[in-house]
Recover the amino acids of this structure.
C-alpha cells in the first residue's frame, strides 16, 4: 500500500481538514439540510428553546429566535456566507499578495521600494478599521465583503512571502535557471513560486479563518451581506437583545464561528509543522 | 545611545509624515464613494433644495476632488477638524474625550495579554517535548480561534447574566460622578483620592479587558516559545551548560534576555492591532471610547467623524510602532552601534 504523504499523517491536518470539508459540505447542501426556510418568520413560535429542554419543539432542533426563525436553518444558511468569504477572500488576498511579493522579492530596486511603501501605508491602519471604512464606501453585499477583505489582508501574504522569495531568489538553482536563458516570467513561475508554496498554503489556511472572523465582525455591525440573508455575526447581534430569555441564541452562532475558525487554524498549524522544513528541523533539534 | 534613539525618532517622524498624507488622501477618496450628500446631511430636514445647494457651494462640494482634499487638509492644518454631522459638535472634542478611555482599556488589556502570553510561553517551553507542551499548544490554537468580541459576549453571559458578579455596561455605575482632571478616568480617580470610584471604574473595565487580553495572548505565547527554542540552539547555551551554570539560571539570565526581543517586537505590533481592535468590545460593553464612536460614525455615515477617527487610528499605530522600535533599540545592544 502506498504510504500517505507526510502532511496527511498529521493529526492536526486531518482534524482541521475534516472540519473544513464538513462545513463546505453543509454550505453546499444547505437547502437539503435545513429543516426550515431560514427567513420564515413565525411569531407564534418565537424564542422556542432547543429541542432537548422540556419546553422544546422537535421541529425546531435548536429553537427559534425572537422572530420565530429556525436557529438551525439560519446557522446552516449562515455557513454559506462564512464559507464563501473564507474561500474567495483568502484566495483573492493570496493572489494579490503573492504576485506583489514575488515581484518585490525577485526584481528588487524601485519595484520593491514601491510595494514596500504601499505595505507600510496599509500597515499603519488597524485592519478592522480599514475594512469598516471600505464597507462604508462599497455598501453591503457579499461581493463587497470579499473585495474589502482582499483589499485589507493582501499585506499579510505580501509581508511574509517577500522575505521567503528573497531567500529563494539567492539560491543557486535560480541563478542556474537564469543562466540557462529562462525568461523572468518562467523563472518566477517554475523555479521561485513552487519553493514558496508550503508557506503559501499555510498562510492561506490561517487567512481563511481570519476572513470568517472579519465577516462576523462586519455582519455584527450590519455592514456585511444584505439584512434578509442569514449571517452568523448578524445572528449574534440579534441574540443580544434576548440574552436573558434565551442564551442559546447567543451561544450557538458563537460556537459556529469558533468551530469554523478552529478548523482553519488547526489545518494551518498542522501544515506549518509538516510542510515548513525549517520549523520541523528546529523542533526536532 | 541617546543620540541613536533620537535619530531613530526623527527618522520615524520623517517617514510618518508622507504616510499620513497618503492615508488621509486615501481616506478622503474612499469616503467620497459613498452615495450620501454631506451638504444635505448637515442641514435640517426642512431645508429647501436651494439652501442645500448653497451649503454645497459653501462646503466646496462643487469643486473637483483634489481641490476639496486640499481645502480639507488646510483646514486641519489650521486646527479646524470639522463638525460631526450626527452630534453637531466639533469632532475633535468628541474624540478627545473618548481617546483616553480607549487608551486605558487597551493598556489594561495589553497587560493581561502579556501576563498570559509570557507565562504560557514559558510553560510551553518548560514542558518542551512532553505531552503537556502539546496540550498548551493545542490550548493556544483554541484561544487563537476565539476573537475578542466572542469572548466579550461569552463573559457577559457567564459573569454578567448567569453569575451576575461584574457590571458589563458603561464606564461607571450610575450615581457615581465622573472626576475630570486629565480625561483618563482611572488616573483621575486616583489623583482625586477617590479609591471607590477607581475601583468601580476598574470593575467596569475587567470584562472587556480580559476579553481583549485573552484573545491577544496566544500569539505572544507561541512566539516566546519558538524564540526560546531557537535561542537554545545557539552555542552560548551549550557553553553555559559546560561551565556548570544551572538550567534555571541559563533560562532566566542567558536565554530569556535574547528570546524576549522578538517577542517584544511582536507585542508592539499586537498592541497596535489591539488598539484598533477594541471596536466591537466597546460596542458590546457600551464603553465610551473611540471604537464606539467609530462604529456609530460608520452607521450614521458621519463623514467628518470617520475621516478624523481614521487619522487618529493611523497616528496611534505609527506612534506605537515608533515607541516599540525605540524600546528594542534601547534593550538590544547589538542594534546600537551605528551602521
Amino acid at each position: 500500500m502506498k504510504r500517505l504523504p507526510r502532511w496527511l499523517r498529521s493529526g492536526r491536518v486531518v482534524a482541521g481538514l475534516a472540519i473544513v470539508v464538513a462545513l463546505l459540505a453543509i454550505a453546499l447542501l444547505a437547502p437539503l439540510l435545513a429543516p426550515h426556510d431560514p427567513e420564515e418568520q413565525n411569531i407564534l413560535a418565537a424564542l422556542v428553546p432547543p429541542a432537548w429542554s422540556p419546553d422544546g419543539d422537535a421541529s425546531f432542533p435548536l429553537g427559534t429566535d425572537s422572530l420565530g426563525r429556525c436557529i438551525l436553518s439560519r446557522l446552516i444558511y449562515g455557513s454559506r456566507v462564512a464559507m464563501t468569504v473564507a474561500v474567495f477572500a483568502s484566495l483573492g488576498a493570496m493572489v494579490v499578495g503573492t504576485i506583489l511579493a514575488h515581484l518585490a522579492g525577485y526584481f528588487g530596486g524601485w519595484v520593491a521600494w514601491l510595494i514596500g511603501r504601499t505595505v507600510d501605508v496599509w500597515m499603519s491602519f488597524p485592519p478592522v478599521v480599514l475594512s469598516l471604512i471600505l464597507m462604508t464606501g462599497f455598501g453591503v453585499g457579499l461581493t463587497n465583503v470579499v473585495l474589502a477583505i482582499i483589499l485589507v489582508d493582501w499585506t499579510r501574504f505580501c509581508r511574509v512571502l517577500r522575505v521567503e522569495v528573497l531567500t529563494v531568489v539567492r539560491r543557486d538553482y535560480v541563478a542556474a535557471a537564469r543562466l540557462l536563458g529562462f525568461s523572468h516570467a518562467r523563472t518566477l513561475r517554475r523555479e521561485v513560486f513552487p519553493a514558496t508554496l508550503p508557506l503559501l498554503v499555510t498562510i492561506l489556511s490561517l487567512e481563511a479563518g481570519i476572513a470568517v472572523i472579519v465577516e462576523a465582525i462586519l455582519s455584527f455591525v450590519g455592514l456585511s451581506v444584505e439584512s434578509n440573508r442569514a449571517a452568523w455575526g448578524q445572528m449574534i447581534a440579534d441574540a443580544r437583545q434576548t440574552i436573558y430569555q434565551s442564551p442559546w441564541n447567543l451561544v450557538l452562532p458563537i460556537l459556529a464561528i469558533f468551530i469554523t475558525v478552529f478548523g482553519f487554524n488547526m489545518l494551518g498549524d498542522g501544515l506549518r509543522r509538516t510542510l515548513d522544513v525549517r520549523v520541523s528541523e528546529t523542533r526536532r533539534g | 545611545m541617546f543620540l541613536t534613539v533620537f535619530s531613530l525618532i526623527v527618522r520615524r517622524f520623517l517617514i510618518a509624515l508622507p504616510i499620513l498624507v497618503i492615508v488621509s488622501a486615501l481616506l478622503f477618496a474612499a469616503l467620497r464613494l459613498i452615495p450620501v450628500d454631506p451638504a444635505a446631511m448637515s442641514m435640517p430636514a426642512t431645508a429647501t433644495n436651494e439652501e442645500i445647494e448653497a451649503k454645497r457651494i459653501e462646503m466646496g462640494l462643487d469643486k473637483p476632488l483634489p481641490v476639496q482634499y486640499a481645502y480639507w487638509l488646510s483646514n486641519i492644518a489650521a486646527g479646524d477638524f470639522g463638525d460631526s454631522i450626527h452630534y453637531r459638535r466639533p469632532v475633535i472634542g468628541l474624540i478627545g474625550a473618548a481617546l483616553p478611555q480607549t487608551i486605558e482599556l487597551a493598556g489594561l488589556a495589553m497587560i493581561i495579554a502579556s501576563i498570559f502570553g509570557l507565562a504560557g510561553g514559558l510553560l510551553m517551553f518548560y514542558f518542551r517535548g512532553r505531552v503537556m507542551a502539546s496540550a498548551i499548544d493545542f490550548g493556544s490554537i483554541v484561544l487563537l480561534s476565539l476573537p475578542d468580541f466572542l469572548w466579550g459576549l461569552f463573559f457577559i453571559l457567564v459573569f454578567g447574566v448567569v453569575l451576575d458578579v461584574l457590571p458589563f455596561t458603561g464606564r461607571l455605575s450610575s450615581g457615581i460622578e465622573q472626576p475630570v482632571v486629565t480625561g483618563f478616568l482611572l488616573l483621575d480617580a486616583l489623583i482625586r483620592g477617590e479609591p471607590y470610584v477607581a475601583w468601580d471604574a476598574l470593575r467596569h473595565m475587567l470584562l472587556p479587558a480580559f476579553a481583549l487580553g485573552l484573545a491577544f495572548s496566544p500569539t505572544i505565547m507561541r512566539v516566546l516559545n519558538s524564540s526560546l527554542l531557537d535561542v537554545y540552539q545557539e552555542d552560548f547555551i551549550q557553553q553555559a551548560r559546560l561551565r556548570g551554570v544551572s538550567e534555571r539560571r541559563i533560562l532566566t539570565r542567558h536565554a530569556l534576555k535574547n528570546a524576549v526581543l522578538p517577542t517584544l517586537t511582536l507585542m508592539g505590533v499586537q498592541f497596535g492591532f489591539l488598539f484598533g481592535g477594541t471596536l466591537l468590545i466597546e460596542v458590546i460593553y457600551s464603553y465610551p471610547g473611540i471604537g464606539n464612536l467609530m462604529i456609530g460614525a460608520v452607521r450614521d455615515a458621519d463623514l467628518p467623524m470617520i475621516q478624523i477617527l481614521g487619522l487618529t487610528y493611523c497616528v496611534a499605530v505609527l506612534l506605537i510602532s515608533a515607541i516599540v522600535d525605540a524600546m528594542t533599540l534601547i534593550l538590544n545592544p547589538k542594534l546600537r552601534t551605528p551602521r
Observations:
- Chain B touches chain A through 52 residues (CB under 8 Å).
